[in-house]
Amino acid sequence: MISQVFAIVAPIFICAALGYGWCRLGYDYPAGFISRLVTYIGAPCLIFHSLVSHPLPLDAMAQTALIAISILLVTLLFWAFLLRAWKLDIATYMPPLLFPNSGNMGLPLSLFAFGETGMTLGLGYMLLMMIAHLSLGLAIVQGGGSSPRTILRNLSSQPMIYAMAAGLGISAAGWQVPLWMGNTLGLLADFTIPLMLLTLGASLATLKVGLWQRALVLSAMRLVIALGITWLLCRWLEVEPLVQGVALLYAAMPAAVFNYLFAFQYQRNPEEVAGIVVVSTLLSVAVLPVLLGLII
User: Fold this and answer.
1) CA–CA separation, 191 vs 174, rounded Å?
2) Which distant-in-sequence residues (6+ apart) come within 8 Å of 6 by Cβ?
3) Which CATH number does the domain housing residue 81 bear?
């Protein structure tokens, strides 16, 4: 069991550590270029190729969507109550407490822990979190000032959404893509996960962290609350074991680096948000092996 868990988590942490070490050594890492490469080419190809190559029962995808939306809404209400009670700024703290690193870490872990089927479910989970982050998350960090037009423009510029819709449509219709297309998409998809992990490490190396004590308390509570809510909702909704495993895995993910980027852009105490991102990532390193040992 220990060797099996190590085989799952080791590639994740080693690749992220390489990206971190690369930047700490002073070498140039074009994070902006690589992020655009992954966002506009790699991830859409990965999503589309996974859906048309490994079709899933629609009920599994529906359960994944249901559990992801349920977790998001319940967690949102929970943290809204606590942050108001503690008199902490919701625009600063809500996004990092609510939106996990579902792409850079969640996706490869879903692949290594549950295989291609788990990764495809993870892709659906990731896409829902991305849509929520670019709509609800952006509205929160802007203090409710994000217009519907801005939200629609942000969402319509994401090719991953179109890739998911096209892949689900072709998979539901039972169609097959030509061999040359499948091979091309597979080739382009293969660079996505390694680059996502390297970029995660590189991003962590550039964060400036402040207020460790508060970051530690909030990150620990974030992890416990997310896992507790996810487990209770999975039991209540009676989702499939594989869907539950993917959902629990994503509940243990650290805060997304995008939370820091938004906080920096809109000046919502970016160093405090950076603290939650870094500390929650360190906590996930300790918790993930134990969690994987329980769910696989």
Assistant:
1) 27
2) 289
3) 1.20.1530
Q: How many domains are there within the chain? A: 1
Buried b (16+ CB within 10 A) or exposed e, 63-77: bbbebbebbbeebbe
**In whole angstroms, what is the distance from residue 258 CA to residue 173 CA?**
35
Domain that holds residue 122: 2-295
Mean pLDDT over residues 100-114, rounded? 86
For the segment 231-288, what is each residue's pLDDT rounded down to a tens digit?
999 999 999 999 999 999 999 999 988 888 788 878 888 888 888 998 999 898 889 8
Beta-carbon count within 10 A of 188 CB:
18
Q: What angle do the packed helices 2-24 and 106-132 form, to 10 degrees?
A: 70
CB 154 within 8 A of CB 134: yes
- Per cent of the chain over pLDDT 90 is 38
